[in-house]
Input
Amino acid sequence: MADAFIEKAGRDWMTALARIGSESRRYGKPVVEGVLTRMVGLTLEAAGCQAPIGARCDVVNSVGERVETEVVGFSGGSLYLMPTSEVHGLVPNARVIPTRHGSDVLVGPELLGRVIDGRGRPLDDKGPLRARNKIALQGKEINPLARTPIREELDVGVRAINALCPIGRGQRMGLFAGSGVGKSVLLGMMTRYTEADIVVVGLIGERGREVKEFVQEILGEQGLQKAVVVAAPADSSPLMRIHGAMQATSIAEYFRDQGKNVLLLMDSLTRFAQAQREIALAIGEPPATKGYPPSVFARLPQLVERAGNGAQNSGSITAFYTVLVEGDDHADPIADAARAILDGHILLSRQLAETGVYPAIDIEASISRLTPQITTPEHMGMTQNFRGLYSLYQQNRDLISVGAYQPGTDPAIDRAVRMHPQIIDFIRQDMNQSVDFDDSRDQLAQVLSQTGDEDQPQVVDALLAQDLKQGEG
Output
C-alpha cells in the first residue's frame, strides 16, 4: 500500500511539474529587473538587466508610477534609455523593468478621421481606437527592383506645380522653405486638392497650436474623413518626435499595401533630424557636420525610402517632406542631404512672399526629376520656355528696377519684361482655388501663346549669352 501511495504521489508530482513547465513556456522567460544608476540630461543609464535596442523598459519613480523608456544604446553592462515623455520623481536605484511588448503600430481603416500622438494614443475626443491589426514601427524593406516605376502624373491642385514642376504618383518631394513664407498654406492646399484615396499627415516638432488649426481649418470635416493625423509637437520628447514620423510612415505603408494611393505629408523632416541629433548627442555620439552626428544622415534615407510605389498590384505613397532652411540658408546639411535622397524639391522664395505672391514658388530653383517620364515633349517645351522667360527677367531684375536697362536693347529681355506680369499672375493662386492638371497645362499654353512660337530659341540664346558674360566676369 505504501508503494501505491508513493507511485501516485510521484505521478501527481510529475503532472504538476508538466503543468508548471507548460505555463512557464506560455509566459516566456522570467523578467530580470535592473536598477537606475545614472541620469544626465535626457539619458537614463540602467544596470542589471538586458534588453535589445528598441525595446521598452518601465522605470518606477518615487511614488510608484511607471515612466516608459526605450533602449537607445548600451555600453558594457549598462543600458542607455530615453524616456518617451517628461520625467519626474526618479531616484537612484529605481527599479527598471524590461517589458515584453515591442514598438508596433495599430493600423486599419478605423484610423481614418482620427488624430493620434507619437505612441498611437488618440488626441481627439472620439473614444479609444478600435484598430486591431499591428505592423512594425520600422517597416519592411522593399526590393528596389520590385517597385513599380513612376509613370503617372499626380494632380495636386496647384497650378504652378502641375504645370512647371509636375509630380508623379509615388514620387518623394521636398518642400524647402524658411519661416513665414507660406509653407503651411501650400501644404493645406495640396492636402485638400490632391487626388488621393488616403491622406496621412505627420506634424512633427511643430507648434502645438498648429495641430488644431490644421485639423479644423485646413483639413476640415470632409478632408478628415479620409485622413489620419499623427501629431508630435515641439514639446514632445525627441523619441516621440522620431516615433511620430515613423508611425505616420507605417500607417501610409499599410494603406499602400491595401492597394490605396496615399498622400503622405511630413512637416517637418528637419525636426525629425533634430530629434535624432538630440538622442545621438545625449548618448555620446560625436558631432560631425555642423553639430549633426553621422546617425542623423543614416536615419534620413531609412525614413524616406519607405515611401514611393510598392510592388506590383499594390498602391503608392506620394510623399512631401518639408525642410526648414534656417535663415534661408540652402546649404544647411539637412537640406543638402534631403536634396540628395528626394526625387525633387520645391523651393519657396521669401522675396516672392514679401511681394504678396502666394504660393511663393521659386520656379528657377524648383525641380522635379521625373518630369521627362510623366509629361509629353510639348509640355516640357512649354515649361522650359516659361522658365526661360522668368529666369531672364530675374537675371536682369536689378537693371530693370533702377531704369538702367533701355527697352529695345535686347528683344528677348523686352519680351521677358513684357510677360512678367502674366508670369507672376500664373504663379499666384488663391488658397481656396483648385486648378487641375489639364487646366494648368492649358493656362500655361495660353500665357505662352502671347509670346509667339518663335520666342523659345531667342529666350534660350539670351540666357546662354547671359551665362557666358557671367563666366567671363
